[in-house]
Design brief:
By secondary structure, this protein is mostly helical. It is built from 8 helices and 3 strands. Helix 2 crosses helix 3, helix 2 crosses helix 5 and helix 3 crosses helix 5. Bound molecules: zinc ion (ZN).
């Protein structure tokens, strides 16, 4: 019997947005934010169960969290998406926002699972990042198909500035060769030292 999935919901951090931006959102920015948010929200509602379930199934462990709050940020405020707290910098393409959400959820899942975190790549930042990226692509492929997953990953590669994407892509390819998640769960591979 699978455990319960976490309750994933959106809360708009208006105060924090103002703090980070240094002023209130203009009327145009607010309008844009509301539009982006509406599209993002409907995708989250539609796919959240499948996303949470797919992450847990591919890794082969249960979620440690009961409640997860997503804090969306408008496009007009410069902030990267982060996993703790779960800040999602919205994009024009709502599917790309969803991609960012899945990526940060993968980080959370890995970091909060003690069994997994110990044997995954916590000491190597680039490797840990590529590992989350790999898992994100696997999750996306299963929900939206491989072509869409690739398309979104290419999009991601264009905007990332915080890590060496060439090195990271190499590692992602290596993980894909090593871990066939149709055969074994990620936890099984790592536990066996693969
Ligand atoms: Zn990341």
């Amino acid at each position: 019997m699978p455990n319960e999935l976490p309750n994933l919901r959106i809360e708009i951090p208006y105060l924090l947005i103002r703090k980070v931006k240094g002023s209130s959102l203009s009327k145009e920015e607010l309008l844009e934010f509301e539009k982006d948010l509406k599209k993002f929200e409907s995708l989250v509602e539609k796919y959240k169960r499948r996303i949470l379930l797919t992450i847990s199934n591919l890794v082969g462990l249960e979620w440690e969290e009961k409640d997860i709050i997503i804090y969306p940020f408008p496009r007009s405020v410069k902030i990267p998406s982060i996993s703790f707290p779960l800040i999602i910098a919205l994009k024009k393409d709502p599917y790309f926002s969803l991609y960012c959400l899945i990526h940060e959820l993968c980080h959370r899942f890995i970091e909060l699972n003690k069994n997994l975190y110990e044997i995954s790549f916590k000491k190597d930042k680039l490797k840990g990042e590529s590992f989350a990226e790999f898992l994100t692509i696997e999750v996306l492929s299963r929900i939206f198909g491989e072509a869409k997953a690739k398309e979104l990953y290419e999009e991601e590669k264009k905007i990332v500035t915080t890590r060496n994407m060439e090195e990271s892509s190499k590692l992602v390819r290596e993980f894909r060769r090593k871990y066939d998640l149709n055969k074994k769960t990620l936890f099984e591979y790592l536990r066996d030292g693969i």
